[in-house]
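Quick note —
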Amino acid sequence: MRVGLEKLESHEGIAVKALLDSGATGLFMDMTFAREKGFKMEKLKNPLLVRNVDRTVNAGGAITHQVECNMFFKGYMERTRMDVYNLGKTEVILGMLWLAAHNPEIDWEKREIEMTYCPPICGKRKQKEKRKEVKKVERDKDEETLKKLVPKRFWKWGKVFGKKKSERIPVRKT
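Predicted structure written out below.
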């Protein structure tokens, strides 16, 4: 699945391929990816031991750093912490902590994921409110532009000068 990650310091957004993995316990970001993209890594006070499926200690060593970032997916947003570890070609893994907390609806045949069961603490509601606010600002900006470009006597027909209406192709009458 494709998700957006946002660095907290610079607010730079990065599109990333994330792997849903019910066998993984937490949320993980690849060490090389985190360094290359310039995420701020925080050193853990106590390193976390990584175990394989067969309970043996992973040869990659312990988890020593975390990254805090905002994650976006289909109108859903959350601030999250990811453990940084060598994941090879995988950039981000969303494991059972994330899957259990958000309980996404997954259609494996269609390869679609919907965030229909998000808990109230999830940022999905905040994102919807922000979109409404952005639309209002855009509408206000359109009105300002209209007043600058269109003579006053035509203001009452302002909708036809708007971006949406002006780009519409008229219906052909024969």
